[in-house]
Design a protein that fits this description.
Elements lengths: L6 E4 L3 H12 L4 E4 L3 H11 L5 E3 L3 H6 L6 E4 L5 H10 L8 E4 L5 H12 L4 E8 L1 H7 L2 E4 L3 H14 L18 H29 L5 H11 L7 H11 L9 H4 L9 H12 L4 H14 L1 H7 L12 H37 L5 H7 L11 H10 L10 H24 L4 H14 L5 H12 L3 E2 L6 E4 L7 E4 L1
Parallel strand pairs: 1-2, 1-4, 2-3, 4-5, 5-6
Antiparallel strand pairs: 6-7, 8-9, 9-10
Helix pairs in contact: 1-6, 8-12, 8-13, 8-15, 9-10, 12-13, 13-19, 15-18, 15-19, 16-17
């Protein structure tokens, strides 16, 4: 088999198949391979007219079909299946060849694999791909990590198949070394969890407090999508809420079990944030909200607990409340992105990746699930000040969140008074207030820690670490 393929894809489930088709549609000759040959043959038979495919039955044929340096994309389940495919193909490759993992791998696994393969002279690139099966086919947001040399070989292909932002730039860039790409994809998914939770809370408030029907809420979201909340998630939310179930004639949202599932990347975001000491409370609450929804027995046992008396709003009050919810949603959304970009920065510093936050915002403008109009402004903020400590430090965002805060607070109060859970809105507001506070009660926490564990504390009036002898005279001693 001649080495004519510019890239190869092994693992032809929906994502792998669509990614292979995307490469072929963009003029690349694509070698395709699957553990079961039937999927390989089916792809070529069904989509062979979309471009040039080279079907390979065996691993040896697949590698032989690739031009040097070989570029081999793995699209299988994360974890042991990925390791198994690497172990199968790595012995067939030569120094300078590139293995690309396009799955949802944990970035720590990517770092390990990159180090192991680097010792063999093989480049390993962990690539975050966002946009689902449609994005894989029509243009996803692509987040590749790995060496600069590997991006020189792979980058032009990725830039060709990636989504394009409104200004025409490809939604991909070299994120940084080893696991940087999969780390950024992980945080992307964490922001996605938070964004979806905030939207769900807005829907819940409009229904339970304003008294709107799903169809009316769909129209509200459509209106919001023409303004500053313009985003893919707001757009599809309107579609979901407007949909009627064909079997029952009821609103679709009313016949779906209210138990949200998750694949784990949101949990990873929170776990790694804890390891890095980064507060991502909005993302964490979104993960926990899904967890709460899934504990059906606990919820059933608690359904009879007392709550407040619901108060109906008239039309004018409901319309005013809807406007307040829009403010709360926008402000909370800013906080979610603030927390996510803080985590990307912290990860970049911890692992010496040198991630460009403005570039990350740029490649999230198209293709990915969290694509939103205001990412242009996030990009501009980080381009203007690469060391910007927080999005809330940017004057434009600070002014907007300041203008929204009264309505934001009113929504959180109304939710508490009406018994509507809003962990996302509430956590975002608490984070905002914690950052702007002159003093936090952490001083008392440190005093408690010193009392029961002699953990010491720092003072506001002089340098050093101190410990109070919490006995009779409570004398203070400086700790070394």
């Amino acid at each position: 088999m001649s080495n004519t393929a510019q890239i190869g894809v092994t693992g032809l489930a929906v994502m792998g198949r669509n990614l292979a088709r995307n490469f072929a549609r963009n003029g690349f000759t694509v070698a395709v391979h699957n553990r079961t040959s039937a999927k390989t043959r089916a792809l070529v038979e069904e989509f062979g007219d979309e471009g040039t495919f080279v079907a390979a039955e065996t691993a040896q044929e697949f590698v032989a079909a690739l031009e040097r340096p070989r570029r081999l994309v793995i699209m299988v389940k994360a974890g042991e299946p990925t390791d198994a495919v690497i172990q199968e193909f790595a012995p067939l490759l030569e120094p300078g060849d590139v293995i690309i993992d396009g799955g949802n791998a944990h970035f720590a696994d990517t770092r390990r694999r990159e180090k192991e393969l680097r010792e063999q002279g093989i480049h390993f690139v962990g690539v975050g791909v966002s946009g689902g099966e449609e994005g894989a086919l029509h243009g996803p947001s692509i987040m590749p990590g790995g060496s600069e040399e590997s991006y020189e070989s792979l980058g032009p292909l990725l830039e060709k198949i990636a989504a394009k932002a409104a200004d025409g730039s490809p939604c991909t860039t070299h994120i940084g070394p080893d696991g940087a790409g999969h780390f950024v994809k992980m945080v992307h998914n964490g922001i996605e969890y938070a964004d979806m939770q905030l939207i769900a809370e807005a829907y819940h408030l409009l229904r339970a407090v304003a008294g709107y029907s799903p169809a009316e809420i769909a129209e509200t979201f459509r209106t919001w999508n023409t303004g500053r909340l313009d985003s893919y998630l707001i757009e599809i939310t309107a579609e979901v809420l407007a949909h009627t179930d064909a079997a029952t004639g009821k609103p679709f949202v009313d016949i779906v079990a209210d138990q949200a599932e998750q694949k784990g990347t949101g949990r990873w975001t929170v776990q790694i944030a804890l390891d890095l000491g980064v507060p991502v409370s909005g993302i964490a609450e979104a993960v926990f909200a899904r967890s709460v929804s899934g504990h059906s027995e606990l919820r059933e046992a608690s359904r009879g607990l007392p709550g407040p008396t619901e108060t109906a709003l008239d039309d004018a009050a409901a319309a005013k409340f809807a406007d307040q919810v829009e403010q709360a949603l926008y402000a909370s959304k800013i906080v979610s992105y603030t927390q996510g970009f803080h985590q990307v920065r912290a990860g970049s510093e911890a692992y010496d990746w040198g991630v460009d936050l403005g570039a990350v915002a740029a490649i999230w403008r198209g293709g990915c699930i969290i694509r939103a109009a205001f990412l242009d402004r996030i990009k501009a903020a980080y381009d203007a000040q690469p060391a910007l400590p927080s999005l809330l430090s940017d004057k434009t965002f600070a002014d907007e969140i300041g203008a929204a805060q009264d309505d934001w607070r009113a929504v959180v109060v109304a939710a508490a008074q009406q018994g509507v859970p809003t962990p996302g809105f509430s956590a975002a507001l608490a984070y905002y207030d914690a950052l702007r506070a002159e003093r936090l009660p952490a001083a008392l926490t440190q005093g408690q820690r010193d009392f029961f564990g002699a953990h010491t504390y720092r003072r506001t009036d002089r340098e050093g670490s101190f410990h109070t002898l919490w006995g009779g005279d409570r004398s203070e001693v400086e700790s070394s």
